[in-house]
Automatic annotation (TrEMBL):
This is Adenosylhomocysteinase. NAD(+) binds at G279, D280, V281, G282, K283, G284, E300, N403. It comes from the Eukaryota. Binds 1 NAD(+) per subunit. Residues 32-42 have a biased composition (Polar residues). It comes from Drosophila albomicans. Residues 248-409 form the S-adenosyl-L-homocysteine hydrolase NAD binding domain. One of its GO terms (molecular function) is adenosylhomocysteinase activity. Its cofactor is NAD(+).
Length: 488
């Protein structure tokens, strides 16, 4: 990891940002997390590829490729709804609109295309950037939202259900355009960076920086850096504290209940649940389930996390001890074969089994594909697996991440991630020379700033350090308030 240079955009104190910037500013928001949100634009499926049809927006521009420009009105409403729940990025938009910190920035973006990212895209434009945008996932685009962006003049090349060939075509249209050359990349998975390196390596001469959102993309950047192939600075936003904490603990705390409810209509009160793994994901799940009146057991391999669970008031058990009695099993370990066929043989009738961890190997689903077991698809993402004696277990999302398969990610969480991305872009764009060709974490002060942007929503008021207190702690009154190794 490269060391951060001393002064950064965030060196302005939070107080400064709200006072200095107020005068300027008042005058002026998942892995490879696949935040697939299919809430709109799903009825406009037809056979012709958008690539083969020329559409125009009301201004006559055809520099976009979406499923159906006629759905722009629906998409605009989706964007407006998202804006309501994205206070941080909207505040950033308002505060920095006059300054235009991204003036003359030409950003090529490759992210999920949904209502929440539309709020980010339009914010970047309001901060002065010119953007061209493609989807990072062939299934996650909200077609109506893409149409709304196209109608608003954004050169967007994205629709749900692109083929792989169409995916690369869309990305190419964004990177390479007559009379426009990118100088910044906002990537989610590393594909824009990868294509540019492969097809347009010369463009890197004018690239000022890459901002990468996903674990996979960040991994690729570190590999490039190690191999000496990274020729521009990059910021890893995946590992910034705010993004990380919100994407794991809070998102999972919110979405485990929603996922279980939507798929099974379960009443939580009094149910016995075992959560395997007590990291951030497990902690969020356990807290939410207990809050609804469930009796929660935890399994852990790490004594520190096990002690945390015990002191949080959970029974820490081995899975075989409780497997006959529990109503729900949630895996959250990132490990493999945590729930085995033997465990599933012993589960009681009606037991719900689901996975919140990244890998789909936590539950040994393949062991359930044997001739004596009957699989019955009862709802989308819900399978009943029936044993010869009539016992049935309920498997959700075939053992894949249940919340990403059966629930949605809240706009508020995306607001945090988007604010982080926008600030990282501003940082790299406005501080040329400050960063070398390496991968950096977002400066701590910016992480703190992102959090501060979201506090007003809760009418939360920060306590200010007195001069004497700041001196006592050896801190600047304006932060950063914690060392980089602090774990929150
Ligand atoms: N569903 C989501 O939205 C979402 C969000 C973020 C992360 N994730 C994924 O969830 C998984 C967990 O993430 P995390 O941040 O909590 O990780 P973590 O490493 O902090 O926690 C996982 C815990 O599981 C424990 N563990 C490992 N093997 C075990 C076993 N066999 N039995 C019991 N416990 C075991 C580990 O000791 C650890 O404490 C990862 O795969 C991560 O990628 C999912």
């Amino acid at each position: 990891m490269a060391k951060m240079p001393e002064t950064t955009f965030a060196d302005l104190s939070l107080a400064d940002k709200t006072s200095v910037k107020k005068s300027n500013l008042e005058a002026r928001r998942f892995s490879d997390v696949s935040t697939c949100s299919f809430s709109s634009g799903s009825s406009d499926e037809d056979e012709a590829s958008p690539k083969d049809i020329t559409q125009r927006n009301s201004n006559g521009s055809s520099d976009f490729c979406v499923k159906n420009i006629g759905k722009a009105g629906f998409g605009r409403r989706e964007i407006e709804i998202a804006e309501q729940e994205m206070p941080g990025i909207m505040t950033l938009r308002k505060r920095a609109m006059e300054d235009k910190p991204l003036k003359n920035a030409n950003i090529v973006g490759c992210t999920h295309v949904n209502a929440q990212t539309a709020v980010l895209i339009e914010t970047l434009q309001k901060l002065g950037a010119s953007v061209r945008w493609a989807a990072c996932n062939i299934y996650s685009t909200q077609n109506a939202v893409a149409a709304a962006l196209a109608e608003a003049g954004v050169p967007i090349y994205a629709w749900r259900g692109e083929t792989e060939e169409e995916f690369w075509w869309c990305l190419d249209k964004c990177i390479h355009s007559e009379g426009w050359q990118p100088n910044m990349i906002l990537d989610d998975g590393g594909d824009a960076t990868h294509l540019m390196l492969k097809k347009y390596p010369d463009y890197f001469k004018s690239i000022k920086g890459i901002v990468e959102e996903s674990l996979t993309g960040v991994h690729r950047l570190y590999q490039m850096s190690k191999a000496g192939k990274l020729t521009v600075p990059a910021i890893n936003v995946n590992d910034s504290v705010t993004k990380n904490k919100f994407d794991t603990y809070y998102t999972c705390r919110d979405s485990i209940l929603d996922s279980l409810k939507r798929t099974t209509d379960i009443m939580f009160g009094g149910k016995q649940v075992v959560v395997c793994g007590y990291g951030d994901v497990g902690k969020g799940c356990a807290q939410a389930l207990r809050g609804q009146g469930c009796i929660v057991y935890i399994t852990e391999v790490d004594p520190i996390c096990a002690l945390q669970a015990a002191m949080d008031g959970y029974r820490v058990v081995r899975l075989p001890e409780v497997i006959r009695n529990v109503d729900v099993v949630v895996t959250a370990t990132g490990n493999k074969n945590v729930v085995t066929r033997d465990h599933m043989n012993r589960m009681k009738n009606g037991c719900i089994v689901c996975n919140m961890g990244h890998s789909c190997s936590e539950i040994d689903v393949s062991s359930l594909h044997t001739p004596e077991l009957i699989w019955e698809r009862v709802r989308s993402q819900v399978d009943h697996i029936i044993w010869p004696d009539g016992k049935m277990i309920i498997l959700l999302a075939e053992g894949r991440l249940v919340n990403l398969s059966c629930s949605t990610i809240s706009s508020f969480v995306v607001s945090v991630a988007s604010s982080t991305q926008a600030l990282a872009l501003i940082e790299l764009y406005s501080a040329p020379g400050r960063y070398k060709s390496d991968v950096y974490l977002l400066p701590k002060k910016m992480d703190e700033y992102v959090a501060s942007l979201h506090l007003a929503t809760f009418d939360a008021h920060l306590t200010e350090l007195t001069d004497a207190q700041a001196k006592f702690l050896g801190l600047s009154k304006a932060g950063p308030f914690k060392a980089n190794y602090y774990r929150y």
